[in-house]
């Protein structure tokens, strides 16, 4: 297999995995209230979920770099793919409580905007957190190198600081969200 073919295949698999991840995250967050209807438990679950996500973002690159010192990229990719398949099987094995399904009618246009309306009105879908995370991911390189005048090697340090801050807030959120929780 040529290098171009291997690169194309890797990109295709990465694209599929990212699409699955993009679909999983909102579905996971929207399912938590069905599993944990108590608001305090729900808030704690969201915080722990955010912390796990941040830990994965911080530790995965370090673990990958360490593994690349002892195994080749192809083996790392194979093990990562196996890990995703095992995760997918675990997700598929979970039995969730049934929720009330409501029949929706209307045109594709109406259904599309109904979905956006529900998303924007539902705090548990966490639009603010997604927007903040995307701003950090998109702007960190520019900010660190242009505004702070730092080298590209400082970008991972800045991202690690953002991740650490996010984890601290995730741990503290249930306690500072007030007595109503």
Automatic annotation (TrEMBL):
Its protein name is NreB protein
* Membrane-topology annotation of the record: Multi-pass membrane protein
Q: Which Pfam families match?
A: MFS_1
Keywords of the record, alphabetical order, are: Cell membrane, Membrane, Transmembrane, Transmembrane helix
Parts of the chain that traverse the membrane = 63-96, 125-143, 155-173
Query: Is Acetylation tagged as a keyword?
Result: no
Its source organism is: Methyloversatilis universalis (strain ATCC BAA-1314 / DSM 25237 / JCM 13912 / CCUG 52030 / FAM5)
Q: Where in the cell is it found?
A: Cell membrane
Asked if the keyword Cell membrane belongs to this entry, the reply reads yes
Write down any Gene Ontology CC term. plasma membrane
GO-annotated molecular function: transmembrane transporter activity
């Amino acid at each position: 297999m040529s290098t171009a073919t291997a690169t194309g295949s890797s990109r295709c698999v990465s694209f599929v995995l990212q699409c699955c991840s993009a679909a999983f995250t909102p579905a996971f967050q929207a399912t938590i209230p069905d599993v944990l209807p108590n608001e305090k438990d729900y808030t704690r679950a969201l915080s722990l979920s955010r912390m796990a996500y941040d830990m994965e973002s911080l530790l995965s690159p370090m673990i990958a770099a360490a593994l690349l010192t002892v195994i080749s990229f192809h083996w790392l990719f194979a093990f990562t793919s196996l890990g995703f398949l095992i995760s997918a099987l675990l997700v598929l094995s979970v039995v969730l409580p049934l929720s009330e399904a409501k029949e929706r009618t209307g045109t594709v246009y109406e259904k599309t905007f109904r979905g956006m309306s529900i998303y924007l009105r539902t705090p548990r879908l966490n639009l603010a957190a997604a927007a903040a995370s995307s701003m950090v991911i998109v702007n960190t390189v520019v900010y660190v190198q242009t505004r702070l005048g730092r080298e590209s090697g400082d970008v991972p340090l800045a991202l690690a600081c953002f991740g650490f801050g996010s984890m601290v807030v995730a741990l503290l959120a249930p306690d500072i969200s007030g007595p109503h929780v």
